[in-house]
Amino acid sequence: MNLELFPVADVACESPKLRWLRIHGLETEHLADGGTECPETGDIIPHWVCRLAYPKGRKYWGDHAISGGDTEDEACSELAYKRGLKLWNEGAP
Q: How far is CA 10 from CA 6, 7, 13, in A?
């Protein structure tokens, strides 16, 4: 008996943000070992990084190819600004 209402392949599609990341060759990463201390609670707010996807053997592209932020969207927005890209919610491909 199949417990799925619809097969995953029939309904799977990329979100606009995932499509934007793929088209521009970008990847994001959550850095669990670092962050910023929240002034109100003292909790550590983890950082996110958005960067050009590394080909095999390459470790670093340079400052123009990596950005960080307290959220994934902040990191992506900062990198888009650095590289002159429109964001996924600004009508970009």
A: 7, 5, 9
Which of 16, 31, 19, 23 has the alpha carbon at shortest distance from 72?
Answer: 31
Amino acid letter, 36: T
> What's the whole-model pTM score?
0.69
Q: Are 68 and 75 contacting, i.e. CB atoms less than 8 angstroms apart?
A: yes
According to DSSP, residue 54 is labeled P
Buried residues in 47-70 as b, exposed as e (16+ CB within 10 A): bbbbbbeeeeeeeeeeeebbbbbe
Query: Residue 46 in contact with residue 30, Cβ under 8 Å?
Result: yes
pLDDT tens digit sequence for 26-62:
989 888 776 766 667 777 666 888 888 876 666 656 6
Pairing of strands 44-52, 66-69: antiparallel
Q: How many CB atoms lie within 10 A of CB 88?
A: 20
